[in-house]
Amino acid sequence: MASPRTLAVDIGGTGVKLALLDDKGRIIGKSLRVPTPMPPVAPEALAATIDAAAAPLGQFDRASVGFPGMVRNGRVLTAPHLGTEVWAGFDLQQVLAERWKKPVRVMNDADVQGFGAIKGRGVEMVLTLGTGAGTALFEDGRVLPHLELAHHPIHGKKTYDEYIGNAALDRKGHKTWNKRVERAIGILRRVVNFDHLYLGGGNAKHIPFPLPSDVTIVPNTDGLTGGIALWRGEAETSSPLRKRSKTAKRKNAKPRTGPRSMGAPGPARLAGARRGDPPQDPGR
Fold this sequence. Notes:
Nucleotidyltransferase, domain 5; five-stranded mixed sheet; about 280 residues; alpha/beta; globular
């Protein structure tokens, strides 16, 4: 029996990337990119765009979709760069499954990229720098409940999206934007106390300053290859992608040795101990 092929879709604010993956999560052939329709994007219009873009890639058995917003059980709750007013409550997972007549799983795009980047050790964080800013958190390889940190204020009334998103890069220029990114890394270090931070997204390539050893720039293809994890046992047991039966839960259950906590997975880092702690505010 042939191994299943997975269609991986990474929806961004300006572009949609697609590729076929083998059962190991490796890209088969070449990936494709098509422009994202201008916002507000009607859900059915985006679904049709994805459908048309996927056709040249050939046959697939299932699909993994990364979506730029809050997603729960395949249903979109927010879509700040596509138009929350038209997306809120839309069951993208169900609609694509019915369109393709194949199993589909939809998850936040930063969470999917994280699955492609992480090593599965300790507390790992993903920060994507693209149209906006996306974040994801993992503990020992398991995705934690998604938080839209990008919409939390970081400077005055400015959110991470507004402070280090693409519009800020265009408006403030590379020098100020990079100072802001460095400050954001330091704040996230203090808030999360991560063991490793992965920087992704199209604008990560504009970072020229030296990064500390626990911060790494990862390729955009992680947003595609991470899609294979949505079909692995660890992704199914750690995220609310699909309800499982009681039998399946008992089968996959592991004994717990004590309460889990994000508090201190490793030695606490002192403020200012590494490059990446918040420098003086680079601008308003």
